[in-house]
Design a protein that fits this description.
about 900 residues; alpha+beta; ten-stranded mixed beta sheet; five-stranded mixed beta sheet; disordered N terminus
Length: about 900
Amino acid sequence: MRRTEMPLSRVFLALGAMLIIAPALAAGRFGFDTTPGRLSKDVIPSHYQLEFDLDPARETFGGRAEIEIEVRRPVDAIVVNAFRLTANSAQLVDAEGRQRDLAIEADAERMQWRLTPRGAAADAGRSAIGAGRYRVRFDYEGVVQATGQGLYRVDYTAQGERAQMLATQLEPVHARSLFPGFDEPAFRATFEISATVPARYEAVSNMPVDREIVLPNERRETHFARTPVMPTYLVAIAVGGFDSLEDKVDDVRLRILTARGKREQARYALDVTKQLLRYYRDYFGVGYMLPKLDQLAIPGVRGGAMEDWGAISYNENLLLFDPQRSGPNQQRTVLSIVAHEIAHQWFGNLVTTAWWDDIWLNEAFATWMAAKVSTELNPAWHLAIDDRLYRERALGRDGDEATRVMTRPPAQEQAIFDVFDEITYEKGGAVLGMFEQYLGPQVFRDGLRRYLATHRYSNATAADLWFHLSQASGRDLTPMIESWINQPGFPLLTVVSRCDGSRTRIEISQHRFMRTSAPLANVTWQVPVLLRAGTSTRRIVLGGEPQKLEIAGCAPVIANADDLGYYRVQYDKANQASLRAAYARLPALERYGLVADALALARAGRIGFVEYLELLPRLGGENESAIWQQVITGFEFLDQAFHASPTQARLRAYARSVLVPVLARIEWMPRSGDDASTLRLRDNLIEALGRFDDGSTIELARKLFATAAARAGDPAPIPNSIRKGVIFTATRHADDATFELVRGWLRSATSQEDDYLYGDALIRVRDPKLVRRVLELSLGDEWRPGSAAYYAGHIGQASGQTEIGNTFVLQHFEELVHKASDWSRMWLLPNAYIGFTDTKHADELLVEQKRRLGDYALGPAAQVAATIREKADVRSRQGDALDAWLRAR
């Protein structure tokens, strides 16, 4: 092997940049034969008959599958997806009922079975299987998973008793671990599913129960009605002892299924569901398609939620709301997530993406739609500005060298997980919102309705959506939109303005924004810009060349009016000073944009951090929780960048000087009449000030915690709205007794909300001895496998003891990686490195990730390596000036 002179990290990033920046081929409109995929288009499924033998107490399951197929032209073999399945037999049955046994050649790396007729004729020039209609039958066994993918088991406690249930997560490529089939989104088919389960359990699937048969030995066979045509990844099956909350809307039967004893915690989600189904019916012009909609609250193991048609499943923390214990964000979380998953019933299920390069469109649409409907249903919650926090994460990720093109498919199928990220969800949703503003809400909705009507019960590409939006608007939007989806990153708009008599003259230009001083790629966007100066507005589309324009009147210029554009803005010094002086009079979203852009420009070195920090006292009486959370995010970044340096203590002192007055203004304890933003703000401030060593906050948190501890381990005395901030602060500064108390609360947690709260508290402990204790416990059986891997990976950065956490993960990698899911294992090492601030560790991470997991996992490592390099860049480039300014204060 030839040794290169370029540092290894730059080799990886240079290769990544070549892959990313090379123009992506724009996908055309949907055609089945031209859709990408690994399976042949010569064999097409039309219907699956699936029979499962399931018992939550077993670690395996039995299955029978019969698939009706059409062979379009003679083939030598039939190839299906199958993984972690063991075949007992396979047969091919032709249209006349003649049966042939099939030999199975398994390819574990490709997750496929190649099926050939046994004793097939070997005549020259003849294929073993002629064109025509067939049925393929399988008898097989599979493995029940423990990490929230495929068919998985959940062990939990319900009403004081141990219990188990089974559920599924088949997107993107786990259907093949439940049944052999054509596990690609373009192969839509109908499904008839049945399950044989112990009689004490209920079985749930996509469609209503058609019939049930009582069997000997206390077993029951449940048959479900036939589904509409749909892709394999939307198949759902669940088995457990459920409580049910039921209702109906538009003749659609609604149920929320929970663990025993939690039925009433589903009431808020059920009320939300009824509102959402009516809203989407009116918005799309077509009602919900199935006769029922079940939503399952899974008590642990699974991450997130999954939009399986007619049987959506959620981690229970995303679906349940307990008025007696839930924190101030829980209702907002439930509304947002339920709105997202129900939106998928139209955009994703009724119309399905053709291939994974367009999965961003499914997820981006649901993200945008959830934000839209949530804001309209609850205007008093100020959800639009809270959602701005998520867009900021996407902008942060999209501004570094390791970002990616939204539409580029992963090179390896295992890396499909990699595209379910901020670029897919938040960037995609923000781009759609930007174009809704540009086209107008009515035109945008008309285009969406045309898209759904044309492609219902079929597949589509992003090009199909652009076509229908263009038809609705009367202009070809494709070149404009594709400038956003076919290249990485986003623009920085540079705005220079001056008052000339009674008019404001503006010059505006763009180039790619980067978080560090890395060389810029020569790319531009067609940017829809809404400018405002005073009460005057002007809409333009900014291309590669600078534009000069005028607006009536003389007032500070806002180049992202309403803050819906997916870009950053840098103003000339005079205009920037005018905007800061007028800060309190700006709309909340524009105030957020001003603060967020200033932080990003400082991180990128386009302004000094001193200039950013001097902005913060101007926030004065700001009441928006999201804006203060953005300020806290900036302090947290600097705290990490200057970790273990003298500057860190001075930064924490400055953070306290900014944040303590805010907490004093809204008061420490909750008051009657506090709005949702104030409740969130107080909790966030308590947590942040605990991190930044505010003595008064730590003392008060410890007193409340001690009161809870005195109640025999019951944390109820801590008010719900500050429970997270108090417990995080007390645990961060914990002694052995406090640690053991929180550990006990975690062991006895009966809700996923509490489980997450106490687990996230434990990984914040600063005492090195207790950090090592958490790491040691992660190798045992006290915690669920996925939780144990999460704690071990995250505790280094969360506790400030990165070296301890990183060393442990490297030493015990094989033990920990087997506790993680296929997706989270790619993040185990990156999470263990993210607390470092030097390029040496960025280089080392890329080497270790490739050595231990292979090329397919380099995406997460490259992202974290870019973050480490950014911190190193800020530390070396701005450290002296920042430290001098802090000393002078």
